[in-house]
Every structure is written in C-alpha cells, then in structure tokens.
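Have a close read of this protein, sequence plus structure tokens, and explain what the tokens say about the fold. Thanks in advance:
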Amino acid sequence: MRQAAIHVFEAKTRELEGVIPWPYLDTRGIVTIGIGHAVESRAEWLSLPFDLDPIQSPATSEVYLVLVWSRLHSLSFGPDLAAGWYASKSTLRLTDQAISALFQSDVTKLETYARGIFSGYDDYGCDAQMGIISMLYSVGPGGIHGFPLCCSAIRTRSWATAAAQCHMQGCSDARNALTRSCFLAAAAHPDDVDSVHVI
C-alpha cells in the first residue's frame, strides 16, 4: 500500500472495527483480538506477543496460554455477546504497538493476495488500494471473487463502476460507505495516486 494510505487505512479501520486488546470470540465463535484479527490456530495463538507477567517463566506462560485458549473455546458466543464481555475471562492483553504490528501484518498478507488477482495493484492510487484492501479485510480473500463486476472494474480502473458494485452484504453500513468512498475518490482523482482523498 502506498505510504500515504497505510496510516489512514489503519486509523479508519480502528474506527470501524474497534480496538480490543484482549481475546474474545466473534459471532462465529472464532478467537479474535486487536483490530478484528482472527486467530487461525493454536500455534498462532502461542506466538502472539501478549503482555505476560514477567515473573512467570516461559513454561508457565505457555501453560497459561494453552489454558486460556481451551477456556475461550468453551465460552458462549453470538451477536448478543459484545467483545467487552470477554475482558474478565483472562488477563491476556496485547499492547497497542503489538496490535498495530498485527494489523500491518494482516494488510501485508492481503496485499500479496491482491497482487495475485489485480496485476496493476502496485500502480493503483492510494484511494483505490484502500478500497481493495477494505473489501479483502471484510469478506476475506476468497470472498472478493463473489464480486465479479467489481473485480472487472478494478482491473480496468473503472473506479466509479467499482464503487457501484462493491456493496458487501453482512458488512456494516460504515464499512460499505468507506469502501465506496475510496473508489469514488479514485475516480475523482485519477492522476493523483500518491495522496489520500477519502475524508
């Protein structure tokens, strides 16, 4: 992602997703933390840089991490349980710096995928790149293929058409509004690729 877009996209995503330093279960029962980061496996869980009690030994810390991982999967989840409900279920926390690093890692992985399906990705402007990554962040890499008209418009840099075809069912109105505004900004400023025009 172009340099000017990186911090803006993180700030926008923090506003939309919230920032949760403790682990919680999303509405599908997936362990989640930070800025909507889904923890894919126990191995990844054990590698997260939690702010652990420095008095504990590495072995003791790992035992506690495994215990919390198992406990999380025994808890209730669903649309009626907000992330705050899980705050008291463990003492595990990520620092804001760790959360930001995790987010940037997620974006890097999504960009690798974006380059595979949009050969011109690196040449797109800040606004267009933000629109693409916003979609990938919301529906996942596989999910974007459910938007063939939008993908076709992105490939031909028809940004106004991409804006008209990027509405994602099941995503918040705010997320959809941001994604659409990114593509509209790209359409309005096709020659200014190094600036972010999304307000």
